[in-house]
Design a protein that fits this description.
InterPro entries: DNA/RNA_pol_sf, Rev_trsase/Diguanyl_cyclase, SulA_CellDiv_inhibitor, UmuC. With about 500 residues, the protein is α+β, with helices and mostly antiparallel strands. It contains 14 helices and 20 strands. The relative contact order is 0.07.
């Protein structure tokens, strides 16, 4: 597919933004000012100020002399970057690849996107009209290369579309600054009377390199398409993503469900064809007012089962606030894993965690309650009790070691052992009773000690002598003494777990 790029240029980005938030400024000339070497300089001016000859770089004192009624607003640090990133995120509704282009523009990779709006002409008209409705003065162009799109947007005919492979012809009549050249190079070109790109584009490359350096040739080649140029999107590109623009804004839950079904059908069809399944998925709803509503789901095992994924999302659709309407739906799948849907159907009667119905039930339980924490544990190659297990990444993860079954282990292990007061005879004898949370437990049966040493390659510390004990009511506990017996240490004993 042929690459196509669009360049957006906001001629009065900051002043337009200020006028949108403060309508009283729309009819008066005003500027943004920054302090440079102890002197206030115009950093941005609105179109009314420019009509009076006040442009960026002019001293505020001189500007006030030209126009005493000029309103001066102090520049906010980082304002330009914040505005560009905010607008770039809004533009994601038109293409998944958007990059900021300081100081007053951005680049869109629109390859394969324009047809969703009826072609490039409708695409460019739609975007420009939307920005103008919001109060922004913008120029836009589309071309095969980033350099050509950038040049035409700023120096060419307003809102132009350069036909495929015709960027060289479109560049010839443009001034030299359209190539994004450095100031010293532009000065040398101007002094030699080379004012347009066409006046030097056909000159021998060795002469151009000798007189103006490599950068001029690089920019020329990038604009023509002989040299590749890349952009860095503000948002990571997921390999599994589906987009659904809407002809009319969607405001109802039924409309959201229909859009979700279409997106799931497309993404699951693709995943099944590649033998993969969803582990995490995100539905983004881009509203007309520029805000984004989002819901996400997760699964315990990779699945491309449309109905099941729809049920998980359906539990959260009520959280979406469509407001004035949703104009774009994006379904992203940031995490996928290998899956075998054919085998799933063949062995649908499997029991336990291998049964898809069990994992789908766990998915629904977790989606109903965000605070529901469902975990599966696997044995880990450690003797120290707190380290002897780990959380499984999925229900299909296979244990690499066996559970330790030589000695009994409690069904409930406390994450942090709790200190207890113990009455015990001479060392190495099990305790006779212990006090835990104000209650005294008299021990009738005991088994131990089982000594467990710390792993010296991980940390250093005392060993533990564990006892499995049972009180007179039949309750069973897992106790241990830390280190060797020492009657000067009152808190040597701890409760670490409970048996069933």
């Amino acid at each position: 597919m042929k690459k196509r790029f669009a360049s957006l240029w906001f001629r009065h980005l900051k002043t337009d933004w200020m006028a949108v938030g403060h309508p009283q400024l729309r009819g008066i000339p005003f500027v943004f000012a920054i302090s440079t070497h102890g002197k206030l300089i115009v950093n941005a001016s609105n179109h009314l100020a420019e009509q009076e000859g006040i442009y960026p770089g002019l001293a505020i004192a001189d500007a006030k002399a030209f126009l005493p009624s000029l309103k001066v607003i102090n520049e906010r640090p980082g304002l330009t970057e914040k505005l560009l990133h905010s607008i770039a995120h809004w533009c994601i509704r038109y293409t998944p690849v958007v990059a900021v282009d300081p100081p007053e523009g951005m680049i869109l990779d629109i390859s394969g996107c324009a047809h969703l709006w009826g072609g490039e002409e409708s695409y460019i008209q739609h975007i420009v009209s939307r920005f103008k409705q919001h109060g922004y003065d913008v120029q836009m162009s589309i071309a095969d290369t980033i350099g050509a799109a950038w040049a035409i947007a700023r120096f060419g005919k307003e809102n132009s579309i350069v036909k495929t492979d015709r960027q060289f012809d479109a560049l010839l009549t443009l001034p030299a600054p359209a190539l994004r050249l450095e100031a010293p190079v532009l000065t040398r070109l101007q002094s030699l009377g080379l004012k347009t790109i066409g006046s030097f584009a056909a000159m021998p490359r060795t002469a151009l390199r000798r007189r103006f350096g490599h950068h001029l040739l690089l920019r020329l080649d990038q604009a023509i398409g002989h040299e590749d140029e890349f952009i860095v999107s503000i948002k990571p590109i997921f390999p599994y993503e589906e987009r659904l623009p809407c002809l009319e804004p969607i405001r109802t839950a039924d409309g959201i469900e229909l859009a979700l079904q279409q997106l799931l059908h497309a993404i699951c069809k693709r995943l099944i064809g590649e033998g993969k399944g969803v582990r995490e998925a995100v539905l983004q709803c881009h509203r007309v007012d520029g805000k984004i509503e989002q819901i996400n789901i997760g699964t315990n095992r990779a699945t491309a089962h449309e109905h099941h994924l729809f049920q998980l999302f359906a539990l959260k659709i009520a959280q979406i606030e469509p407001a004035l309407g949703i104009e774009l739906f994006i379904l992203e799948v940031p995490k996928v894993e290998e899956a075998d849907p054919v085998q799933e159907n063949l062995w649908g009667n499997r029991i336990g965690l291998d049964n898809p119905m069990v994992t789908e039930l766990l998915d629904r339980l977790k989606s109903r309650d965000p605070n529901c924490d469902i975990s599966r544990y696997l044995p880990a190659a450690h003797y120290w009790p707190e380290r002897s297990m780990k959380t499984a990444g999925s229900v299909q993860e296979v244990a690499t070691v066996d559970w330790q079954t030589e000695r009994p282990r409690p069904t409930r292990l406390l994450s942090i052992p709790e200190p207890i007061l113990v009455t015990a005879p001479i060392p190495d004898y099990p305790p006779l009773l212990f006090r835990y949370k104000g209650e005294v437990y008299t021990i009738k049966k005991a088994d131990g000690p089982e000594r467990i040493e710390r792993e010296w390659w991980i940390d250093k510390g005392e060993h533990r002598d564990y006892y499995a004990v049972e009180d007179e009511k039949g309750q069973r506990f897992w106790l241990y003494r830390s280190g060797h017996y020492d009657d000067s240490l009152p808190n040597q004993w701890f409760l670490h777990g409970f048996f069933a």
